[in-house]
Design brief:
The chain is of the alpha/beta class. The chain has eight helices and seven strands. Helix 1 crosses helix 8, helix 3 runs parallel beside helix 4 and helix 4 packs parallel to helix 5.
Length: 245
């Protein structure tokens, strides 16, 4: 038997009502942490908070600056870790690109990382962690990848600099490939099962990466106090093989 790794600590998950955020909250809870969840959908968030025995929850859009500031200001005590999973990717060819939607996607990732880092100063204990979610898909070049490619390139540089700006709070980025979550299902629709089959057949790990895999890495980043300013790929070897889709 070992002691829980997060006993006596508080973990805030922004975007914690489903998928990677929920699974990370669940794992952190089993490691002894108190959990505070946020999400956009009040009903889904309430179900998640009840299921996890969360210490608190708040329903709001994380890109709403006033709501985000109010949330951090209202936290009852200093916290130890923040995981941000809010946001979704946006793929569009230049001719079809919706500039307003592209701007919002940038706000959901780069600007949100800046805002959370500003608000975390003085609220997160020294040595605690901010963990942001990115991806690996935008590292390749192709039609429809202009915006996601730019964001994918920018996030690691931003995270590394934020780690210096707000030290000794640690800041890290998880760069995931395909993860089998409700978000992936909504993006792929009827093509989801074909994508799962393709990944199981071709990935070196011979299985699809799930939210529990990302959660395990996130909790490790919370507990390993030597890790800051880094980008940590987790894609089951997806970048090592070529896909037709």
């Amino acid at each position: 038997m070992r002691e829980p790794q997060l006993s006596g600590q508080t973990v805030v998950v922004i975007g914690g009502s489903a998928g990677i955020g929920y699974e990370t909250a669940r794992l952190a809870r089993t490691e002894g942490a108190e959990i505070v969840l946020t999400g956009r959908d009040p009903d889904r968030l309430a179900r998640a908070a009840t299921g996890l025995g969360a210490a608190g929850s708040a329903a709001f859009d994380a890109t709403d600056t006033d709501a985000l500031s109010g949330f951090f200001a209202g936290l009852a005590a200093p916290i130890d870790h923040v995981l941000v999973t809010a946001g979704r990717p946006y793929y569009a060819k230049l001719a079809d690109l919706d500039r307003d939607r592209a701007r919002r996607t940038f706000e959901e990732h780069e600007w949100l990382a800046v805002a959370v880092s500003q608000l975390a100063a003085g609220r997160v204990r020294p040595g605690g962690t901010l963990i942001f979610m990115g991806g690996t898909g935008g590292r390749k070049r192709g039609l429809g990848l202009s915006m996601i490619g730019a964001g994918t390139a920018a996030l690691p540089a931003l995270i590394a600099n934020l780690a210096l700006e707000i030290a000794p709070i640690r800041v890290n980025l998880i760069a995931a490939g395909f993860v089998d979550t409700p978000l992936s299902a909504s993006l792929l629709g009827d093509d989801l099962e074909a994508r799962r089959y393709e990944l199981r057949s071709t990935l070196p790990i011979r299985r699809v990466v799930g939210p529990e895999d990302i959660a395990a890495l996130a909790v490790h980043l919370m507990t390993n106090t030597a890790m800051t300013g880094g980008t940590y790929d987790i894609d089951g070897g997806q970048q090592l093989v070529a896909f037709t889709t």
